[in-house]
Specification:
With 551 residues, the protein is α/β, with parallel strands linked by helices. The chain has 20 helices and 15 strands. It has a six-stranded antiparallel sheet with strand order 2-1-4-5-6-7, covered by helices on one side. Strands 8-12-13-3-14-15 form a six-stranded mixed sheet. The longest helix has 47 residues. The chain is elongated, with a radius of gyration of 44 Å. 28% of the residues are buried.
Length: 551
Amino acid sequence: MLERLEVRNYVLIRSLVLDFTSGFAVITGETGSGKSIILGALGLILGEKSKGDVVRQGEKEAHIEALFSYREGGAVDAFLKENGLEDEEGGLFIQRIVRQSGRSIMSVNGYSVTREQLESLGSLLVDVSSQHAHQSLLRPAIQLALLDKAAHSAPLLSAYRQAYDELAQARKEHQRLVDENEKASGEADYIAFCLDEIEKADVKVGEDEELSAQVRLIGQSEVLTGELEEAQEALRGGNDLGALSLIARCQSAVAKASRSDARLDAYLERIESASIELEDIASSLGEYLASISFSEDELEEKNARLALLQRLKKKYGGSLEAVIARREEYRNALATIENFEDLLSDSLKRMDKAESELKSRGEALSACRAQCARILEKTIQDNLSALGLKNAVFQIVMSTRQPEASGMDDVVFTLAANKGEKAGPISQVASGGELSRIMLAIKSALAAEDEVETLLFDEIDSGLGGVVAHSVALELEKLSHSHQVIAITHLAQIASKARTHYLVYKREEDGRTVSSIDEIRDGERVDEIARLLSGEVSEISRAHAKSILEC
């Protein structure tokens, strides 16, 4: 429920605060006084797009703030939890700042939100009925959605949509299978040739890098051999000039000296260790030298293999991983061609099953809608009768169509407003006033199903008067027993039934025009009702105003 609305520096509003209560509230005022401005400010709180020209002249930004209450466990509560926007105290505070550039800063309970999030939340907080909303009622999709709401068909619709998506996926897979087979069949010989080429090569990941390293090593083998042979000569050389021979002489001399001085034993151990290490190095170098003896034939063979791999990479994707992936693709393509009839048969069976399931779920959804349509159309017709259309015949006409995401039903709201008239779609036969009453009749019929607590009616009385206006007022009052109802109106009959009455007016402040709004009671309210009745306040109109306020 909307509890408080605060607006600053918005169009002609310098500053205003509105405290709302539950029940029925009306907003009245002369044409051009600023009623639409207040509606626009509330629209921004509910997520409508903004423009910079709404900022009051001379100010940098406009501020709109609103405080709502909501039911724990309801749709609003679920939305706040899902989006991480809960308040510790369980409140709902929305703020929107509009700058001259048109950019907005939006927050819910202090958390920044996108306009899309705010719009989604707004649709759960306030249901706005306006001339635009009346026009949307003419759309078949909206009429179907209203019927589904009354029928509580969400679980059936969800199950139907799942089957619809499954059938769409089955058809997509079937078409993919047919397309791939058609393409592969035309290229079967080429695919077989390429697959044979790749399979004969027996490609392994990383093989090209390993071969490249080996070829580089072979190319440097002559240099390596020379250097290693020189190293061998230095270690083992003849005429006692090799490092091992010299160390052996050193070891013998130190051994003799240690007989005279035992302290030399430690040096002798180190010389022996060095001798062993050098001997091991010499042996290892000999083994390495033997391992790099490549033949020209081996080099030619490796170069040929490397050239083959490079050609395959260039032809099939740039890497050996891509070549291997292409091999699997070709295998699958040939397997599809080979097994196409079996695969096609399986695909058709899946589609038949999906179509059967969709039909079954669609029929269950249609039956639910049809059953509810008879009940809903009677309730709406009774409401229309109470709203002055006593001879009206309202019907919900259903017909079967090809399955779509919303079901297999076309739904059209029809009306014959007077006896003897032919019924037709409300989009073709309903006048503006009749459309307003149809909208109100539907709202009343669906009141118990509607989780939105606040209903805002913007000039729903357009084109109405007299007894009909009184009927509309009574219906709005009835709605206010289960919802917070706020109506912007020009009719005294409607204004007189409200529990709370706000008056919008213009005044001059510091040489500038500003719009203000005040709650009016007692004599002020009598005067405003009198103005609505006759356009001016007189003793006669005041007496009339008092009489309808007392009814």
